[in-house]
Specification:
By secondary structure, this protein is mostly helical. Helices cover 70% and strands 0% of the residues. The structure holds zinc ion (ZN).
Length: 105
């Protein structure tokens, strides 16, 4: 089994999890604000935190989708910048890593 095949289910599971989070965040953000002014101010702050979380999740979703398409075309595990093999320890820590540790730092 090659590295891509091994990591694919992990990436897919993470992708499903993130998509669920984003849906949940989206629903919370869509809930109508309360009428009370002070409560609304607190909610707005909470909304900003949620938006940040949502944006971070969307970024990771995009990275995972890129990793999955690289598994499809057989370039998964190669650094997108220099073409070197990404260290297996790095792949295990960051399955959607698109760059070797040297290029990423
Ligand atoms: Zn590199």
């Amino acid at each position: 089994m090659n590295l891509g095949e091994k990591m694919k289910p992990i990436l897919e599971a993470r992708l499903a999890e993130l998509k669920e989070d984003v849906t949940e965040i989206d629903q919370t953000l869509r809930e109508p604000d309360s009428q009370d002014f002070e409560e609304r101010a607190t909610e707005n702050e909470g909304d900003e935190v949620l938006e940040d979380l949502g944006n971070a999740a969307l970024t990771e979703i995009a990275q995972i989708e890129t990793a999955l398409s690289r598994i499809e075309d057989g370039t998964y595990g190669e650094c997108a910048t220099c073409g070197a093999e990404i260290a297996p320890a790095r792949i295990e820590a960051v399955p959607h890593a698109a760059q070797c540790i040297k290029c990423a730092s």
